[in-house]
Specification:
- There is one protein chain.
- The chain is α/β, with parallel strands linked by helices and 985 residues long.
- Among the domains are: 175 residues, no CATH class; 147 residues; 199 residues.
- It is 58% helix and 7% strand.
- It has 42 helices and 14 strands.
- Helix 4 runs parallel beside helix 6.
- The relative contact order is 0.06.
- The N terminus is likely disordered.
């Protein structure tokens, strides 16, 4: 299958840093409008402190007019005229007329040298700017020489705490970044930002530089693999720029764009799209229609939309980007045109427009061949590999074979074995062999092509952030490997591949959280910082090795590879040290996929495991029992599957909004059941007393309990008809495993922890509620754009939450701790010893990441501080990860607690990951917004059944069935009411 071009978001991030941060402005770079009373000499000198980045075209016109007037005045001072010309070079730089800018700057520098005057801060800044232009042109060694010359002069003139020094320091970091040494660049940018913020706070000047340094820090952190820190820096830059720079400032646009790219890199496509749309709107208002910055915005939005499955919308944006790239080729990235065309082809394919997709991929190949320096170039190989994959799917094997062979051979020359593009091309070649009737050869080729990827994902020396991103890039390749293994009759290989395709959700909990926030002692902080430094170095060395492979320099390859080997050894040692002082780090490490035979040997009769994995084109599934295995590729493509899932989820949402009074689309739920449980699997699924369902992506959001196993009868609005429906939960108890290994492990013994801790019923905006009054309250709220106050202050009280927690306590053995109402604060929670509680429950509101512009991760709502402290009443996922727990069970009686870090994020990637990282053994979570009265009933009844001796999943099933059959509770038979909760264990 042809796949999405991996690494596009990384390209966007790098482009943001380079394009937005190439020209360190003068230390006084705030636009100073000329006053009518100013003399010509004053206006000429004012050009030195003019900010040309906001509107460079206007700045150039103003500069040219002032210079022309000054040249005609014999009283003009020569040095003032020189610096005015340097200001003109600044405007030319921002207009991308780099050669003209450099020529002027060199002339001014030579004139100043010839004049023999003393060094000045203006002169040092001019030298710095020469280095910046050279850096932009890729002349890095010469650029560094000018930067170092400027640094020496600036240190002597202005000192190391000056804005001028920060500017030069930042310029050196930018050169190092372009040289691939972002480990050296990162602390320099951090230092420059710290200096610039202090100076700007003190005198109100050069605030554009603060934003530039901040957004560049975001891009660098992304390149170093720290996505959480990258998002935080990007958000800081965007908020600072919007608050401190003029409307529609270029730096504000760049900061917003970088924040969007950081969110894309973290997989938070839903959060990224509105941020990128705002940057685009500003650029449309100020840029020419063919400006390359617009193309970058269009392309980034297209990537976010396609990541969220909105292919029709993505198509429009990719098309606009391709038109601009075609009209204005980027000399620094000529492959941008072919990349955009490939993305268009990808979304066309996802829309089922196969013929148009094929034509577009042909065009991408032709374009790549035309703009690339050689036929063996990486961009050509990628385009050919994608075209070959589509031709194989359409049965055009004779045309596909030479393309596939040439692409794979080229990628083998210029990339490492674990390169996602090379892995993808190798699996595509396996599909070609399979289509030619050679299943054994196909499987061998696909296994060989994915072996390096498998090793890297499972190697503890692979930095966790890299592993998380790579698992997403490799996912489709492993799904296709499973499909080839199905055809070859190798179920063991298929089972291994599906487990590899599911890496990256719950099993990578630690990497998705704020690692630094999880370190709570000096020993942990030191071990973590050492690990993160080695992580950044290992990532940099791998990029160096990739570049060496691409150049074909044998000596450079050998040297780079030796350094990677040494770095990996150091990283494994640091990993072991960190695991000793931070147990959560070890608990959330990758685990080897479990062999199929081992799983079967441990399964009890009546238990069936379903493993789903979705690639770029379609999804695969296996059903495993103690003595049988069945497998299948799901019917249709990813888009048709997503439509079916969305139809069921939309019907659920209507039920939520109406408290169960709306109809439920049972036909859609039945169609989805038949799609997700194909004929080949039903003999293993339908008799099962228990189903363990491991899935990622959109399938993880499916409420399996509410799927309909038989054609429904009666009216979808009729309570009796709903109650009598053949829900899957009537046949089987259902649970989500943390990993396949957790299924196969011996039953966990109860921990040493005892007792119950309940937290919730926070005191929020409304008065203390009456549990018997009014309609049921939902434990969530609509999103807000609030920036200046805690989102918790906008939420209603939950009248039944206190009674729910007290009822749980009554069902569980002592000791009991309850933090309720005004006591349910962050401070009280931190002071409460949670490590000795066997069951911990939160009954409150749950917020997904992106609920407000200032909330970047999921959170549970507590009582906000009203004493002037900074506590916002939000227990975020990264704060949860800092806890030290040994609870047998965590119950989150709140809305959307199975949701990911935000729109487009993996299901279970937020609060669930955080609690498992902190030490939880099992969890009860919600798939959607839950009624206050229903949450209380389901959780308490489930606990009661567990106390009576049932397993957790069986206990939840009993509580759900009782609710379905309850004729006294309004809306109880609607799945929106009875099916929101799921057990993870």
């Amino acid at each position: 299958m042809a796949g999405r071009n991996a690494g596009v978001s990384a390209w966007l991030g790098a482009a943001t840093l380079v394009a937005a941060a190439g020209w360190p402005l003068s230390a006084m770079a705030q636009e100073q409008p000329a006053q009518p009373a100013q003399s010509l000499a004053e206006r000429l000198r004012a050009l030195k402190v003019m900010d040309a980045s906001g509107d460079p075209a206007a700045a150039l016109m103003h500069t040219d007019a002032t210079i022309a007037e000054a040249e005609a005045d014999p009283a003009t001072i020569a040095e003032d005229l020189l610096y005015a010309r340097a200001a003109r070079a600044g405007a030319l730089f921002w207009l991308r007329r780099h050669d003209e800018a450099l020529a002027i700057l060199r002339e001014v520098d030579a004139a100043l040298v010839a004049a023999g005057g003393p060094p000045t801060t203006d002169w040092s800044q001019l030298i710095n700017n020469i280095g910046s232009v050279l850096s932009t042109q890729g002349k890095l060694e010469e650029a560094m020489a000018f930067k170092q010359r400027a640094l020496v002069m600036t240190r002597a003139l202005a000192g190391e705490q000056s804005m001028e020094y920060a500017s030069v320091l930042y310029g050196i970091a930018l050169v190092e970044y372009r040289q691939g040494d972002f480990l050296a660049a990162l602390p320099k940018v951090e230092q420059a930002l710290e200096i610039a913020r202090r100076a700007a706070d003190a005198n109100g000047e050069a605030k554009d530089q603060v934003a530039i340094y901040w957004l560049s820090l975001s891009a660098l952190r992304s390149q170093a693999g720290d996505q959480t820190a990258s998002i935080a820096a990007g958000r800081g830059a965007a908020l600072y720029a919007e608050a401190n720079l003029p409307a529609n400032h270029r730096v504000t646009m760049a900061a917003l764009h970088q924040l969007g790219v950081a969110l894309i890199d973290a997989g938070l496509f839903g959060q990224a799209e509105p941020v990128l749309q705002r940057a685009l709107a500003m650029r449309l208002a100020t840029h020419p229609a063919d400006d390359p910055d617009l193309a970058m915005s269009y392309h980034a939005i297209g990537f976010a939309l396609s990541g969220s499955g909105r292919y029709a919308d993505a198509y429009e944006y990719y098309t606009k980007a391709a038109e601009i790239f075609s009209a204005n080729p980027d000399s620094g990235n000529p492959g941008a045109i072919a990349t955009s065309l490939g993305q268009i082809a990808y979304v066309l394919r996802q829309q089922g427009r196969s013929d148009e997709a094929l034509a577009m991929w042909r065009r991408a190949v032709d374009t790549a061949r035309r703009v690339s320096p050689t036929p063996e170039h990486r961009d050509v190989a990628l385009a050919e590999a994608n075209l070959a994959a589509v031709l194989v799917d359409q049965g055009q094997l004779a045309e596909a074979r030479p393309l596939s062979e040439h692409a794979l051979a080229a990628l083998r020359r210029v990339t490492l074995p674990e390169n996602p593009h090379r892995v993808r091309a190798s699996v595509n070649y396996g599909h070609l062999l399979l289509a030619e009737g050679k299943p054994a050869e196909a499987l061998a080729a696909a296994k060989e092509g994915t072996s390096a990827a498998r090793t890297m994902l499972l190697d503890r020396a692979t930095p966790r952030a890299d592993r998380f991103r790579l698992s997403e890039q490799y996912r489709s390749a492993f799904v296709d490997l499973a499909r080839i293994a199905f055809a070859a009759g190798d179920q063991a290989a298929a089972f291994d591949a599906l487990q590899m395709a599911n890496l990256g959700d719950l099993s990578t909990a630690f990497s998705a959280l704020s690692a630094r926030g999880a370190a709570t002692t000096p020993e942990q902080s030191a071990a973590l910082e050492h690990y993160l430094q080695l992580t950044a170095e290992a990532t940099r060395l791998r990029k160096t090795l990739s570049s060496a492979v691409g150049s074909g320099d044998a000596a450079a390859i050998e040297l780079a590879n030796a350094k990677v080997v040494t770095a990996d050894e150091q990283l494994r040692a640091a990993d072991a040290d960190l695991s000793l002082v931070m147990p959560a780090f070890r608990r959330t490490a990758m685990v080897e996929p479990l062999p199929l035979a081992q799983l079967q040997a441990r399964l009890s009769p009546g238990r069936t495991v379903l493993v789903y994995a979705e690639g770029t084109g379609n999804a695969a599934v296996m059903a495993v029992t103690r003595d049988r295995v069945a497998s299948s590729v799901l019917a249709g493509n990813s888009q048709s599957l997503h439509r079916e899932i969305e139809a069921v989820r939309a019907s659920i949402e209507q039920g939520v909004a109406s408290s169960g009074a709306a109809s439920f689309n049972r036909q859609a739920a039945h169609r989805l059941y038949r799609t997700l449980v194909p004929d080949a699997l039903r003999p293993l699924v339908e008799p099962a007393a228990r189903l363990d369902i491991l899935a990622g992506g959109a399938i993880a959001s499916v409420p399996f309990a509410a799927l309909v196993t038989e054609p429904p009868n009666g009216d979808d609005t009729n309570r009796a008809a709903l109650a009598e429906t053949a829900w899957l939960i009537r046949r089987s108890e259902i649970a989500v495993p943390l990993t396949i290994n957790a299924i196969a492990a011996p039953p966990a013994r109860p921990g040493a922890s005892k007792g119950f801790t309940g937290i919730g019923a926070p005191s929020l905006a409304g008065p203390p509620g009456n549990a018997d009054a009014g309609p049921a309250t939902l434990r969530a709220a609509v999103r807000t754009a609030s920036l200046g106050k805690s989102p918790a202050l906008d939420l209603p009280d939950l009248p039944r939450a206190e009674g729910e927690l007290r009822a749980m306590a009554a069902e569980l053995p002592a000791p009991h701790r309850l933090l309720l109402g005004a006591e349910a604060t962050e401070a009280r929670l931190r002071a409460t010893p949670l490590g000795d509680a066997a069951v911990i429950a939160f009954a409150t509101h749950g917020l997904v990441g992106g609920y407000s512009r200032s909330l970047t991760e999921p959170a549970l709502v507590l009582t906000p501080a009203r004493d002037g402290s900074e506590e916002d009443g939000l227990l975020t996922a990264s704060e949860v990860a800092q806890m030290q727990l040994s609870a047998d069970w965590i119950i989150l009686s709140a809305c959307d607690t199975s949701a990911g870090d935000g729109g487009g994020g993996p299901v279970y990637s937020g609060l669930a990951q955080a609690f498992f990282a902190a030490g939880a053994r099992a969890m009860l979570l919600s798939h959607w917004r839950v009624r206050d009265d229903i949450a209380a009933r389901l959780t308490v009844d489930t606990i009661r059944h567990v106390r009576a001796g049932m397993g957790r999943a069986a206990a939840l099933r009993r509580a759900q069935l009782a609710l379905i059959d309850d004729t006294a509770t309004p809306g109880a038979a609607h799945p929106a009411t009875w099916a929101p909760l799921i057990v993870i264990e």
